[in-house]
Amino acid sequence: MQTYIFGHRNPDTDSICSSIALSYLKNSLGEKTVPKTIGHLNNETKFVLNYFKIPEPQYLNDVKIRIKNIKYDKNIYINENSSIFDAYHIMQKQSITAIPLTNNSNKLSGFVSMKDLSKFLVEGNKMKINTSLDNIINVLNATVLTKFDDEIIGNMMLVGYQSSTFHEEVKLTNNDILIIGDRYKVIDYAIESSVKLIILALNNNLNNEYIEKAKKNRITIIKSAMSSFEIANIISLSNRIKSINNCINPVTVFDDDYYDEFQIISKKSKHTNYPVINHKGECLGLISLNHVNEYDIQNVILVDHNNYEQSVVGIEEAKIIEIIDHHNLGTIGTKVPINFRCMIVGCTATIIYKMYQESKVKIPKNIAGLLLSAILSDTLLFTSPSTTELDKQVAIKLSKIARINIDDYGYKMLKAASTISGLTVNELIYQDYKSYTVGNIHIGLSQLLTMDFDEINKNIDSYINKLDEINDINKGVNALFITDIIRKGSYVIYSNKSEDIIRDSFNLKEIYQGCFIPNVISRKKQILPAIIDIIESK
Questions:
Q1: CATH number given to 68-123+243-291
Q2: Is 160 exposed, middle or buried (0-12, 13-18, 19+ CB in 10 A)?
Q3: Could you give the count of Cα atoms lying within 13 Å of 374 in the half-sphere of its Cβ?
Q4: Sign of the CA dihedral 188, 189, 193, 194?
């Protein structure tokens, strides 16, 4: 199984670039990993990937357990034209109590259970045969002597009369299927009467005279090693399985349905077995309640976060095998020990670089460019207080590998990041929005990097209204910090109920929507710790 590597829900350049770079490293070491994104990419990240000609990671909606992850009976179904006999033996062999039916396009067409089979054996019409000759041959393990019909429809008749009595008392028709031994006069009479099918018991043979006469009258004749009684007892099982299908619209599950939703469905319907289909209606197999505790869990590696609130939907159902981060310890826990690497650096990419060095894997030019971009982005060109000397040293080494001038490239990248034209208020707030929890209090902090606050200020009421909406859902503190690295500070817009905490957190004598807080740039080092201190002091 492949391991997914991804960052947080509102991915920034570090989150995406570190995922890609770490995946390349892991794969170089023989592992099977795929970088993913669990959110939409911002303008800066798109600029970086385009600059280094790296495709965007595929979107990962969730890592919840789905039906396809459960070890159900895959490819267990039977064509509706197959025999009851074959269906029974599949159920016996696979130890299942029901089987889905499919048409010739593999579309689900019905569902037959052992209960249906039992009902047929007890109450069904054993004399009526409506099936293919191939089904009859298969059930009786028969040999063909003459063949003129592919489809056999008629009434089964076991010949136990004396030849003279049979000829006098029984009028044969084209709807009759005779099971007979070595009563050749009756066989001759049956051929003359153009019966539908003659089945010879105990492998009795016919001489050429009978064979030629049968060919002339277009009579199909087969022979079986079984006795007449055995044939009569079993031939009804050659009927098509669809003939006893009383459930043409069974309760089904899709292979991409969620496991927890299946549990709810099964409790309501109280069935034991369910056909599994895809969205084309094709049958994939059978799932039963016996399978519900047997499933594969998705392996994941988290980068640039270790909080449930910031991670992918269903993360609690996945198997976290590693976390690479540079933030404070969050809420994510694991049942078993994992590789957890957290360093006091300004960017996850700095840690990824160290991992390349430790593994002695050469960093390609484009991967070096991604790692450098992540560092320049997270440290705001080394102006953020979260920047360390190690970040600067690594950035210089990466710039040489990528053959990039840090100042020139960094300016182009941040210019792309500061573009807000064409984006809605909702998009700008959620572009880099992170959630935290302190006790029972929710903290939602969005950070936007731009040198064009005036454009935002024109529409500031819309931002306030949106933050109020968010606060109605996630009660606590919700704010947007617009960081201007030229002025070396951030403007703040907040939900109205967050005003007191924002004022106290930054010791503001005067607070108003859009006020500028000098020297506050880092959400991780300055904004979040300041808010947490005030909340915990109250």
A1: 3.10.580.10
A2: middle
A3: 33
A4: negative
Could you report the per-residue pLDDT of 64-101, keeping only the tens digit for each? 999 999 999 999 999 999 999 999 999 999 999 999 99
Q: Tell me the mean pLDDT in the region 241-254.
A: 90
Q: Distance from first CA to last CA of the chain, Å, rounded?
A: 48
Residue with tokens 């002339």, as numbered in its chain? 216
Reference 322, options 300, 305, 351; nearest CA is: 300
| Phi/psi at 444 (5° precision) | -120, 110
Q: Residue 530 and residue 438: Cα distance in Å, rounded?
A: 13
pLDDT of the residue at 378: 93
Which CATH architecture describes the domain 425-537? Roll (3.10)
Q: How many CA atoms lie within 13 A of 5 on its CB side?
A: 26
C-alpha torsion angle, residues 160, 165, 169, 171 (rounded to 10): 70
CATH placement of domain 142-225:
3.40.1390.20
pLDDT in tens, 149-194: 999 999 998 886 556 667 767 788 899 999 998 888 889 888 989 9
Q: Whose CA is closest to 52, among 89, 24, 94?
A: 24
pLDDT at 245 over 60: yes
What pLDDT is recorded for position 265? Answer: 86
Pair 337, 85: CB distance under 8 Å: no
User: Where do you find CATH 3.40.1390.20 in the chain?
Assistant: 142-225
Per-residue pLDDT, 171? 85
Question: Quick one: pLDDT at residue 514?
Answer: 95
